[in-house]
Amino acid sequence: MTAHTEEAGMPVATDDPAGDGPPRASRSDRLGAFAQQHGALVTLVIAMVAASLSFDTFLTGDNLENMALSSAFLAVVALGMTFVIVTGGIDLSVGSLFALGGVLAAWGSQYGSAVALLLPLAVCGLIGLVNGLLIARVRLAPFIVTLAAMLGARGLLLAITDEGSTTYLVDKHSFFATLGQGSLLGVGVPVWITVALFVLGAVVLRRSRFGQYVYAVGGNEDAGALMGVPVAGTKVAVYTLSGLCAGLAGALNAAWLVSGVTILGSGMELEAISAVVIGGTLLSGGFGFISGSLVGVLLLKVIQNVINQIGSLDSAYQQVVSGAFLAVVVVAQTWLGRRRRVL
Amino acid sequence: MLSVTKLSKTFPGVRALSDVDFTAHAGQVHALVGENGAGKSTLIKVLTGVYRPDAGEVSYDGAPVRFATPLQAQQAGISTIYQEVNLVPLMSVARNLFLGREPRGRLGLIDFGRLHREADEALRRLGIRVDVRRPLRELGVGAQQMVALARAVAVDARVVIMDEPTSSLEPREVATLFGVIRMLRERGVAVIYVSHRMDELYEICDAVTVLRDGRVVHTGPLAGLDRLRLVSMMLGREIGEVRTEGLTKFSGSHTATAEPVLRADNLTVRHRLNDVSLALRPGEVVGLGGLLGSGRSETAKAIAGALPTDAGRVSVAGTPVRTGSTAAAIRAGISLLPEDRKAEGIVPGLSVRENIALAALPALSRFGLVDDSRIDRVVETFMKRLRIKAAGPHQKVGELSGGNQQKVLLARWLALHPKVLLLDEPTRGIDVGAKAEVQALIDELADDGLAVLLISSDTEELIEGSDRVIVLKEGVVVRELTGDDVTEDGLMRALASAPAGGHDG
Amino acid sequence: MADLALARGTLDRARLLRLLQEYGVYAGVAVLLLFNFAFTPYFLSTENFRTQAVQVAPVLVVALGMALAIGTEGVDLSVGSVMALSTSLLSLYLGYGPWIAALIAVLGGIVVGVANGALVAFVGVQPIVATLALMVAGRGLALVLLPQLKDVRDPGMAALGSGDVLGVPYLVLIAAALALLVAFVVRRTTFGRQVLAIGDSRPAARLAGLPVSRVLVVVYVCSGALAAVAGILATARLSASDPTSLGTLMELSAITAVVVGGTPLSGGRVRIGGTVAGAVLIQLLTTTLIKHDLPPSWTQIAQAVVIVLAVYAARERGRR
Fold it and tell me: Which residue ranges does UniProt annotate as crossing the membrane (chain C) (predicted)?
């Protein structure tokens, strides 16, 4: 067949029909791409260096361990969020699901560690599934569906804690508690779990067929459908995944705190979204990577840590800084994206 | 190979297909032609599993089938290439090519080495050389279309459906495409080819089926079928009529001797326009000719302030107009009827009345308050004058036919009393009757003293409608046809000639 | 052609759906009222109606601005934070007198609105994301300015919070006046028409020479200013400034009121009457559940369900 076409003397088409020079990436273009992929990492390194030069207490084992642990829970939430955002969606319910997961885990721990772990996964996964079905099948806007789920999950949490007045405790000596409290090689178990999940998540997004579907849905949903991508199925899967991640993070957090604190998680959806976006994932979908989200989480936590170290500053400044940071990143992304489209 | 019998499909209110019989044979290129709304797209969508038929049967390889999704049709060996490139722009060429059937290695993970190698080979076989690792969007439209083609034939396709595949291709790429089609034909693939371009049909197709108003009006071999006969079947008009009346309703000539009302000098937009200058006198229709991508629409948009320019000046009646601002252009009396009526023209959810009054609102209100009685008067005047067919001024524009939508847009601009009217493909995608009306209207407006710039890919319309034709090529003015030179022949020769100086591509 | 088919077709279902979209919210209010007349003790009293109306006023004022933002195919998630910012500014500057303090609070809302509008209109950031950033930063700023709850003891504010004219509380009068004003703007001004056109088809609006960016900025400024006013009203009613909790989930309530009222999230349409009814509906729903001794958890779950149902009913013809 090959031989035949060559005999036919088919003219060769290049990708440059207009004749306006080969569309090779220009230098500033590559710089833009670099900024998008590694900007967060560079900023993180600079922030860490600056922080360790400014505060003696920053680069200490205790402080780093603390930061790693507190990053772990947000990171797991951000992991699920990354998948959702790459499909061009958004999940505002994760904060509530995080809290709900924690309460369910603490309540369930009285029936054994397996229940403590599986119950939040089941319930939060189910809520994520419902989100996904409403978004993919009924075609409602993601932000409104997940906003409703945020409210609904919060309501559910109140319902099982006597309107927030009961705090369930986890037995300190149970296996479940070691998931949060234990450590391995001097590093907390939640950190190990998070790292493992990120490796797994990165492999799935980059190297599996499902990952390709996620990118395709976010990049061009209609084209994806025509190319045989199970669009609805992929969407349902990512929202379910996000629910699972939020529930798991909540459960791990409950194991760490050895109690199901009811007031956690508000505003966490914003932190997770900020982390993902800061990590280079496009909010419009179709482009993003797992490692970036981890860097985004760490960056947010370093900023938080620095603000705490400056004792005179109110912790509310952290929100101001995060918000401003988010705005800056989004503006930069929009600007980079637009420039590349024009060229 | 693939056939349908007694197929019917009704959308609530519209009968899209009725009793359609159609058969595509292996090793044959079968043309599917018809005017807009004839039912071609619906038929294709039924064949590929996007729509389900209300009645009738689809059979494939002799056995009846019913595809529930495009994926099922694809897996059965029916591939489709759509008019607009339907790929994922942010993903790499290779990933696009193999999306959903990536070669997998250990643990079910994608083997990227093999993926890139195979993608490269597949494209080379079609005579395309690109870096398959690059994001698709960095490729030109033509190359993207070829990737779509490669994707369609790479799966063991036995039926390939092409929906106007050449609409965004350069002649060189069209030749490549035809090479691929011939190769497919020899491999025994059934090709269904949808196009409006007569030359292409006669060059590549073996058989033809003509659809009109959802029915098959003719099916048979293409060779020996007279072109005029084919056109008359598509239009549903008698041959004599076509021949004597011509296809357009333009009267042809206007006398314009006055000073130019619009002057555009040295318009330059990076990668798009290079030093384009033109002048329009009141009462004349100037055509803007050129192939796709030659910068026609860009010229119009640059004049109307809808495309920021890197250099150049625009002036109306001697007064300079700030470029890059539609509001400034409109204030100066320049109005643009955009090419993409649906996306850039109408506001579908607003009524006919609101759409007509939209641009003229500041003039029709006092202290920011809308003056309803004045709007009513203006709207009534234009609905009558342009013969807009709507249930009333309060019907939503989205519910009107294409022709009437176009008239509403014309009314929107005429309500501003413009001096210069830029019309980008004013008759594309509207039915024959409305087309004639719009053409007659353009004539009338020029007679009233408006300066009109007409862009049309329909050469006949361009030639018959224009007093002069300015020919663009790769963003440069290459020729101006005046007087007796305004003929299709003259236009073709201008298009075939080398770019006149200055372009250092 | 398919568009035409869809538009002309599905007539019966479409008409039913349209009726539901147009009048569903009024029917819902009527049903809830009847239910309460019949089954809720002490519901039918002037005092109760006053309480309900006073409670609904701030939500309604926020929802008015939200309706404008949604009309342009946008959304403003920062409204709750703007309320918090407004209450912080109000109590900080109350020393200069209530009028000046209120003016500064509204100014704060306008500044946030300008920031939102600039991000959306000039930079081209998606409204959800732009206003999300301001939502995070706004609440933080409010807490930085006023770290904890503070009582507001000002005769002017007290009068605003509890005074009335002919039995109608000031708060309700202000909310009603603002609703009428916004309705007038939407229906009768060029600005209103431009908002709708931009929401329906932004490229078309741009090519028709409309000042798209300016209109968008003004819309978000309106939304910010109205949210700030709502913050003032809420502060007056509670006679305290609580930047930690004031306005939390307000964006959700406001969006719900707008969507339940029949304004589609896809823009191009703004229904102020429906928005008022939507806010009332949510308020009545909450009251009904509370009066029948259902805990707040159930109220939240019920509200979530209502939102989903409303969005489902208002689901527009296909997506873009």
Answer: 23-44, 56-79, 99-121, 128-146, 166-186, 207-234, 296-314
**What is the reported pTM?**
0.79
Q: Residue B260: phi, psi to the nearest 5?
A: -60, 140
Q: Worst-scoring range by mean pLDDT, A47-51, B56-60, B169-173?
A: B169-173
**Closest CA of chain A from C111, distance in Å:** 15
pLDDT score recorded for residue C2 = 44
CA distance B7 to B66: 12
pLDDT in tens, A95-135: 899 999 999 988 888 888 888 889 999 999 999 999 999 99
Please check whether residue A34 is in contact with residue B216, taking contact to mean a CB–CB distance below 8 angstroms. no
Give ranges for CATH 3.40.50.300 in chain B: 2-90+135-245, 258-333+419-505
Q: Which pLDDT score, from 0 to 100, does residue B500 have?
A: 43
Mean pLDDT to the nearest integer, A81-92: 91
Interior angle at CA B69, CA B63 and CA B71, nearest 5: 90
Interface chains of chain B (3 or more CB pairs under 8 Å): A, C
User: With an 8 Å Cβ cutoff, are B326 and C190 in contact?
Assistant: no
* pLDDT tens per residue, range C233-251: 999 888 888 888 888 888 8
d(CA A102, CA A99): 5
Lowest-pLDDT range of A320-324, B209-213, B428-432, C224-228: B428-432
> Which contiguous run of DSSP H or E holds residue A187?
strand A187-188
pLDDT digits (tens, 9 = 90+) for C245-269: 888 888 888 988 998 888 888 888 8
Lowest mean pLDDT among B165-179, C230-244, C295-309: B165-179
Domains of chain C listed by start with CATH number: 17-33+47-314 (1.10.3470)
How does strand B55-60 pair with strand B2-11? Answer: antiparallel
**Touching check for B140 and chain A: CB below 8 Å?**
yes
Query: How far from C161 is each of B78, B428, C235, CA to CA, in Å?
Result: 70, 62, 8
CATH for the B258-333+419-505 domain, from 1.10.730.10, 3.40.1190.10, 3.40.50.720, 3.40.50.300: 3.40.50.300
Distance CA A60, CA A52 (A): 9
Q: Which of residues 169-228 of B touch A (CB under 8 A)?
A: 169-170, 172-173, 175-176, 179-180, 182-183, 186-187
Alpha helices in B321-369 (DSSP H): 326-332, 352-357
Residue B182: burial class (beta carbons within 10 Å; 0-12, 13-18, 19+): middle
Name the neighbours of A, counting chains with at least 3 Cβ pairs within 8 A.
B, C
What amino acid occupies position B351?
S
Query: CB contact, 8 Å: A270 with chain C?
Result: yes
**Cβ <8 Å between C137 and A322:** yes
Q: Which of C55, C67, C64, C51 is nearest to C229 (CA)?
A: C64
* CB pair distance less than 8 Å for C297 and A159: yes
Q: How many CA atoms within 13 Å lie on the side-chain side of A86? A: 33
Quickly state the pLDDT bin for B391 (edges 50, 70, 90). confident
| C147 with A151: Cβ contact below 8 A | no
Please give the average per-residue pLDDT across C84-90, as a whole number.
93
Q: What radius of gyration do chain B's Cα atoms show?
A: 25
> What was the pLDDT predicted at B249?
54
Domain boundaries B2-90+135-245, corresponding CATH code? 3.40.50.300
**DSSP-assigned states of every residue in C55-118:** HHHHHHHHHHHHHHHHHTT---TTHHHHHHHHHHHHHHSGGG-HHHHHHHHHHHHHHHHHHHHH
Q: What's the average model confidence in pLDDT over B273-299?
A: 84
**DSSP character for B416?**
T
